[in-house]
Every structure is written in structure tokens, then in C-alpha cells.
């Protein structure tokens, strides 16, 4: 098995067919809707809140609201639908979540997208939740995860998932790889490649994106969409605390399985870091779009499909995926 990660690979340019990078189309379709970028901010409490979700939806970006404000989900769906925006929420797999899904069906509050968000998605608990969602909310687009193997992708797809999310442990605030010895940290790009070869439905590559060029690499190896946490942390709009140190501003970014999220030190697989303040989210989104347009131009095409066909070379081997421990 050929194993590599983002920093080990470079894509090989093809002859340019556009006169300006602005001609390159970065839009993607997921669940029958078009979005401006093949990128979704991570469904984490220090990355997205209702204000950020509304901004993203209004401006034509895909978003997934986190699941950590359980009571807030129903009012959130109502608010988004009242404003004519997509409602995209997350659920877990505990018994109360089954009742929540039934309540949505009873009240005819149908989210457009539902993401099942747990650490070890290749499990009966996720398969059962996919079936429950398909029974009660058959028109919702179900994203299930997280997984790291082709077998898991097939099994979740066969259970009814409309897309799967790939990435166990490559995240910036993830310590799963250190605490358990398992995961796709250090070979996330290869895992995306293996999973996408087995997939019949879209794959969302989740975690380990450290530069905008990694988005193009994810697409080259089969991702339809890329979920990103750390590069979206630290913005003016990012939820969470800000601090000043030696005249510089920082914002917190913590893992969903960290003690900061859980409120206790039990089964902790995440940590907190401070990200240097980055300014406005729109500036980052615009720069991502420009960089991806440039990637498309180097691929010798006019849209994301062109990236999928380019050659690549392995330039080095690494296991730390940009993280310094
Ligand atoms: N993408 C990634 O690499 C990772 C992401 N996370 C994020 O952290 C958050 C919390 O995740 P999670 O703990 O799953 O959510 P929950 O705390 O909601 O746990 C979901 C259910 O799965 C069980 N569970 C969790 N981990 C395992 C495991 N390794 N084997 C068997 N059962 C398990 C839990 O039981 P019990 O707690 O009793 O075991 C619980 O019943 C999520 O947002 C998730 O996305 C966490 C780790 C890795
Ligand atoms: N192992 C853990 N993974 C986590 C945790 N919280 C979130 N995540 C995953 O990380 C990505 C974001 O990765 P990044 O490299 O872009 O920062 C996120 O989407 C989750 O899948 C956690 O506590 N532990």
C-alpha cells in the first residue's frame, strides 16, 4: 500500500486553458445544491455558531452546525427555514438523539442535511442512526462519520448514508493518534484515496488541512468536499474566547473530545490551542477561492473536475502531518 500525506505530495501542472484565474469555477454540488467552495468549516463549537452558519448559508457556502447546543437545534432549523436558508445540523447516537429525530419528523421540521458526528463511525450505533434518520426524515441528506477505511465507507453507504466523512485523528487539536495509537493521522491523504476508490457516493475529507493547497490535493484523491477546523479558527467571527499576549491577539480552538467541550476529563481525545487572530472570515474564504481557482488553472482545466485527473509525485515522507508535538 502506497502511503502518503498532504505534505508528501505535489500535483503536476498541465497546460493552462484560461486567460484569467477568475474564469475557473470552484463550485461543487452536494445533495442537489450548489455551493461556492468544496469546503465546509468543522462542526465544532469554536468554529461555528448560529451567526457564522447564517452568514455561510446566506453567502452560498455549505455549513454544518455542531451538535453541542442540543436545545438550540429546533429553533435553529425553524429560523434558517423562515429565512429561506438551508438547515444543516449534527446529531450523535445516544438514545435521546433517536427521540430528537422522531420529534423533528412529528413537527415536520426537516433539516436539509443531517451529519452523524461521532469519533468511531464504523459502528452499529451509526448504522442504526442512519436507518432511523432514513425512516423518519427520508428527504434529509445524511452525512455519516467519521471513518478511515473503505470497508466502513461501504457499510455506511449500504446502510443508507448519502455521504461519508473520512478522517480519524488527523485534526490539529486531535490527540487520538497519541492516546490510542489508531487513526489516519500522518496518512490522511492516502486514507481519503483508499476510501474514495471504494465509495459510490461523495466523500468528505475531514482533518489535517494545513494549507489551501491541501484542498486541491484532497480533491485530486477523491474528496467531493473538505472539512476544515484549524484554518477557520481564530477569526473575528469565530466563537470562543480571545486573549491578548505580548500585544498579540489569540482565539481559542479546542477539540470536540477535549475536556473543554466535555466539561470533564473522561475519554479525552482532544486538546486546546490558541490561534493567532486572523481577521475576517470573508477574507479567508475569498483567499481560499482565489487559491483554488489558481489550482484549477494549474490543472489545465476550468473546474474542479480537472484537478481529479492530474498527475502527482511523492516528494518526501512524513508522519506528523504538519504538527509539532
Ligand atoms: N474525527 C476524529 O478523529 C475524532 C473526532 N472526535 C469528535 O469528538 C466528539 C465526541 O465524539 P464521541 O466521543 O464519539 O461522541 P459521544 O461522546 O457522543 O459518543 C458517542 C457514542 O459512541 C461511544 N464511543 C465513542 N468513542 C468510541 C469508541 N472509540 N469505541 C466505541 N464507542 C465509542 C460513546 O460511548 P462512551 O463515551 O461511553 O465510550 C457514545 O455512546 C465528536 O464531535 C467527534 O467528531 C473525537 C475523536 C476523534
Ligand atoms: N481526535 C479528535 N479529532 C477531533 C476533535 N475535535 C474535532 N476533531 C476533528 O478534527 C477536525 C478538524 O481538523 P483540522 O485539522 O482541520 O483542525 C474536525 O472536523 C474533527 O473531525 C477531538 O477532540 N479529537
UniProtKB/TrEMBL annotation:
The keyword NADP applies. InterPro entries: Aldolase_TIM (IPR013785), GMP_reductase (IPR050139), GuaC_type_2 (IPR005994), IMP_DH/GMP_Rdtase_CS (IPR015875), IMP_DH_GMPRt (IPR001093). NADP(+) binds at residues 203-226. Residues 5-310 form the IMP dehydrogenase/GMP reductase domain. CDD domains: IMPDH. GO terms for biological process: purine nucleotide metabolic process. SMART domains: IMPDH. Keywords: NADP, Oxidoreductase. It catalyses: IMP + NH4(+) + NADP(+) = GMP + NADPH + 2 H(+). Gene3D superfamilies: Aldolase class I. Its EC number is 1.7.1.7. One of its GO terms (molecular function) is GMP reductase activity. The active site is at residue 174. GO terms for cellular component: cytosol; GMP reductase complex. Catalyzes the irreversible NADPH-dependent deamination of GMP to IMP. It functions in the conversion of nucleobase, nucleoside and nucleotide derivatives of G to A nucleotides, and in maintaining the intracellular balance of A and G nucleotides. Belongs to the IMPDH/GMPR family. GuaC type 2 subfamily. PANTHER family: GMP REDUCTASE. This is GMP reductase. It comes from Vagococcus silagei. The gene is guaC.
Amino acid at each position: 500500500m502506497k502511503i502518503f500525506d498532504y505534505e508528501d505530495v505535489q500535483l503536476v501542472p498541465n497546460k493552462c486553458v484560461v486567460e484569467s484565474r477568475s474564469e475557473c469555477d470552484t463550485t461543487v454540488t452536494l445533495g442537489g445544491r450548489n455551493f461556492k467552495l468544496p469546503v465546509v468549516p468543522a462542526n465544532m463549537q469554536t468554529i461555528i455558531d448560529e451567526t457564522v452558519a447564517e452568514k455561510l448559508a446566506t453567502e452560498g457556502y455549505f455549513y454544518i452546525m455542531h451538535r453541542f447546543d442540543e436545545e438550540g437545534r429546533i429553533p435553529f432549523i425553524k429560523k434558517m427555514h423562515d429565512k429561506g436558508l438551508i438547515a444543516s445540523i449534527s446529531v450523535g447516537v445516544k438514545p435521546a438523539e433517536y427521540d430528537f429525530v422522531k420529534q423533528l419528523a412529528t413537527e415536520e421540521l426537516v433539516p436539509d442535511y443531517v451529519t452523524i458526528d461521532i469519533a468511531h463511525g464504523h459502528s452499529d450505533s451509526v448504522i442504526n442512526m442512519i436507518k432511523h434518520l432514513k425512516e423518519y426524515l427520508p428527504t434529509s441528506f445524511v452525512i455519516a462519520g467519521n471513518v478511515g477505511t473503505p470497508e466502513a465507507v461501504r457499510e455506511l453507504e449500504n446502510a443508507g448514508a448519502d455521504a461519508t466523512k473520512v478522517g480519524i485523528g488527523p485534526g490539529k487539536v486531535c490527540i487520538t493518534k497519541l492516546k490510542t495509537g489508531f487513526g489516519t493521522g500522518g496518512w490522511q491523504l492516502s486514507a481519503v484515496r483508499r476510501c474514495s476508490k471504494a465509495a459510490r457516493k461523495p466523500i468528505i475529507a475531514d482533518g489535517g488541512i494545513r494549507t489551501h493547497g491541501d484542498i486541491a490535493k484532497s480533491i485530486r484523491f477523491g474528496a467531493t468536499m473538505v472539512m476544515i477546523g484549524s484554518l477557520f479558527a481564530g477569526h473575528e467571527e469565530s466563537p470562543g474566547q480571545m486573549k491578548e499576549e505580548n500585544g498579540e491577539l489569540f482565539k481559542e480552538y479546542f477539540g470536540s473530545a477535549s475536556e473543554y467541550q466535555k466539561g470533564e476529563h473522561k475519554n479525552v481525545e482532544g486538546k486546546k490551542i490558541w490561534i493567532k487572530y486572523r481577521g475576517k472570515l470573508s477574507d479567508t474564504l475569498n483567499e481560499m477561492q482565489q487559491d483554488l481557482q489558481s489550482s484549477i488553472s494549474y490543472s489545465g482545466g476550468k473546474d474542479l473536475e480537472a484537478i481529479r485527473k492530474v498527475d502527482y509525485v511523492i516528494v518526501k515522507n512524513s508522519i506528523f502531518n504538519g504538527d509539532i508535538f
